[in-house]
Amino acid sequence: MKLDVRIHGRGGQGVVTAAELLSVAAFEQGLHAQALPSFGSERTGAPVTASCRISDLPIRSHDPISQPDLLVVQDLTLLRDPVVMAGLPEDGTVVVNTNRDLADLVHGGLVVGPAQRWVTIPANDLSRQLLGRPVPNTALVGAVAGMTDLLSPEAVATAIRRRFAGLGEEIAEANVRLAEQARDLVMTTTAGGDVRC
C-alpha cells in the first residue's frame, strides 16, 4: 500500500502544514510517511506546493512527487495552471476547495478524465464557520482521510492536536472538528460511488 499526495495552494493557506498533518497521522497508525515542502517565492498569496508520501513499507525516495495518486487543490484558481494537474494518472483522485459543484466547474471548461475521481468541498466556508477565517488545510486533510479511508479520524485528530497544541486547546479542538466535518461531508458525498463527470 502506498499513497502519494501533492498539495497545491497559496502562501498562508497552510499547504506545508497539511502535508505534515497527513504524515503525522500516518505515523500514528504505524505507517511510514514523509512530508516534502517545495517553495518558490515565500510570500502570502504566492503558489506553494507540498507533498506527502505514505506507505506500509520504508520510503526510500526523497524527491518531489511528480506522479501523485491524489491531488489537493486549496485554491480553485490554481487549476488554470497546467503544472497543477501534471503527472496525475488517468485514474487519479482530486480534492478541490470550492463551494461550486463539479458539474459547474466542467461547464466552465474544466477537463476531467473519465476514470478520475473528483470531489469539491467548501473548505473555506467550513473554516470560516469554525475558525472565523478561511484557512482550508485541516478541512482538506479531513477530506483526504475521507476519500482514501486510509487515515483514521483518531489519527488525524491526534496529529492536529499535536500540531496546534501551542495555540491553545480551543483552536486545536476547532481544527479537529473542522477535519471531522470535512471527512463526514466527503464520505456522504462519495457514498454512492465515485464522483465523476
UniProtKB/TrEMBL annotation:
Pfam families tied to this protein: POR (PF01558)
UniProt keyword annotation of Membrane present: no
Domain Pyruvate/ketoisovalerate oxidoreductase catalytic intervals: 11-183
Record bears the keyword Oxidoreductase: yes
Keywords, in A-Z order: Oxidoreductase
Single GO MF descriptor: oxidoreductase activity, acting on the aldehyde or oxo group of donors, iron-sulfur protein as acceptor
Protein name: 2-oxoacid:acceptor oxidoreductase family protein
